[in-house]
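Q: My labmate handed me this sequence with no annotations at all. I'd like to see what the chain might look like in three dimensions before we decide whether it's worth expressing. Could you predict it?
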Amino acid sequence: MYWDYATYEYLLSAVLLICAMFGMGATLNAKDFLGVLKSPQGLCLIIVMQIVVMPLVAIMLARAFELPAGIAVGLVLVSALPGGLFSNVLTFLGRGNVALSVSATAVCTVGCLFTTVAVLKIFAAAELPENFSMPAGRILAEVGLCLLLPLLLGMTLHRAAPQWAPKASSFCLRASWVLLVLIVSAALLAGRLDLTAYGWKSPLVLILFGMIALWFSYAAAFLIRLSIDDSFTVAVEVVVRNSHLGILLKAALFSSSDTRHLEIADGVLYTVLLYAAVCLIITISEVVAKRRMLGPVFGRMRKINRLD
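A: Here is what I predict for the chain of 308 residues:
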């Protein structure tokens, strides 16, 4: 399967997300989401970071490093994507605010029908086809079938059969872990990325973009006095982007039969795939750091707790 990994990637990702969302739903109730509505600062911060701040950061990095056109367009596209559905899984594993994560993913993914088009037309119009439009049906189907429906089914189980909910949650979350390891291993073994294809600057810029997203999110979250769990959730939501949607948009933007934009299309695909790997490495590191209370953010919290 490794050499034909692309054929199975979407199916594996969809099954992982359905398992994970059902498992998380079985641990949640409506009060968790009411808490997000009563204190919407975290949700508002995620929206501002994703729609306004990170596209500006992408443009600044592209100009500062004089990136090739394809990589620059790819970076703008990544910055315009909503948070990835994997962010919900990673937030749960890092013991963050799952209700906030799910709410932000749903809102930003539906909102991207408008915001992603706007960002691309403002910052990358010169390189895009004139009649570009978002694949709205595909996006709404993904949100409904992979995010909201399994989450609601899990919450229904939690309410209707609380004695079974913990076992179902544990089984589904363990299955999602196995699938996550399988996806990461298959992607690495499939050799989908040639890190040397665009020199050293492009990987460096993508790493910088991910780290800036992480630390800007923490700084803004601490500035408005969010809790450590909410701050972690904001950071994960802003760093992790929907790479599957990015690949879909690349296909919609640049037809394989359009040789005029072939070089730009290759650069966009390279950027989306490499950033998918970069953001996963960054956020998994943060998950481990938070669970073990290590690093500059969580290590400091551990010291404070010891003093208390």
